[in-house]
Design goal:
The structure is a homodimer.
Chain A (H helix, E strand, L loop, with lengths): L4 H15 L8 H8 L3 H13 L3 E4 L5 E4 L8 H9 L16 H19 L2 H11 L1
Antiparallel strand pairs in A: 1-2
Helix pairs in contact in A: 1-3, 1-4, 1-6, 2-3
The structure holds a DNA duplex (39 and 39 nucleotides).
Amino acid sequence: MKYSKATNYALHTMLFLAAAAPNKPVGVQQLAERQAVSPTYLSKILTKLVKAGMIESASGANGGYRLRRNWEQISFLDIIHAIEGTASLFDCSLDHGPECLVQRVVLEAEAKMEAHLRGQTLAQLVSEQKIDH
Amino acid sequence: MKYSKATNYALHTMLFLAAAAPNKPVGVQQLAERQAVSPTYLSKILTKLVKAGMIESASGANGGYRLRRNWEQISFLDIIHAIEGTASLFDCSLDHGPECLVQRVVLEAEAKMEAHLRGQTLAQLVSEQKIDH
DNA sequence: GAAAAGGTACTCGGATATCCCGTGTCCGAGTCACGAGGG
DNA sequence: CCCTCGTGACTCGGACACGGGATATCCGAGTACCTTTTC
């Protein structure tokens, strides 16, 4: 029961992009160095974020990754779901009646966690980060 | 990001033991049949619960597994921790200042989930289950 | 005193958990090489 | 033409999900042996 490292990279990258200059694209090279990971691997992760519509990529010279218009409303949960998928973290798969008590309780707990993650938007966090810094 | 099947088995077993007659030990054979898993494998999982002090085992004829005295206060979180370990589901492991914002947010979310799981005791759930049934 | 009843202690077999080990599968993490696209 | 992203194929290791067999442990039934009772 752990979030994957890919999720970690994605979250940090998004936060970095949000804190950086908003319109200049940032190359994967630079992003990868910052997190000590290979550029190829990171680009694979970022492609998922592109497909999820959170960032956009530009090829060619001076290309890179850049946030899209409405980036401020993106939440942690959105990013996590883009990487990990939206499958819930428990499915009973035993056939003992349609209402599995175990399932219900765990899913309630999960919902509480997701609610918190949904409440944390990039915009909020960037301002907090600036204060810290 | 998923709970292991072992956790599933453990939760169901605990709930079953709590619903059954409290003092008669139940053999691993019977418990395993109910969940369609091999007795050998299940016993491995139950051993963890024994070591965590939640149930006790009895060898010999009419032996089996049985809840301990204060079973009513055992929570879902206790059971999950006994099987999955207590490691938190995120550790940033990047060295960018002592206070990682990502880490903080995810851990807050995790705490909310754990709070909910800690609030669900076996005693509560057994009574709910009886009503359902 | 002998037979029946009772009781203790010991053995023994089977039911049970526990330990050690092995196997197959799947997934995360990462690399490499090559293709595509744009300035 | 060069720089950048995109992606598919590949490797590699470790965790997960099981299962099997041998071993230790313990209970309960049987049994033999002794003691007590009763006539």
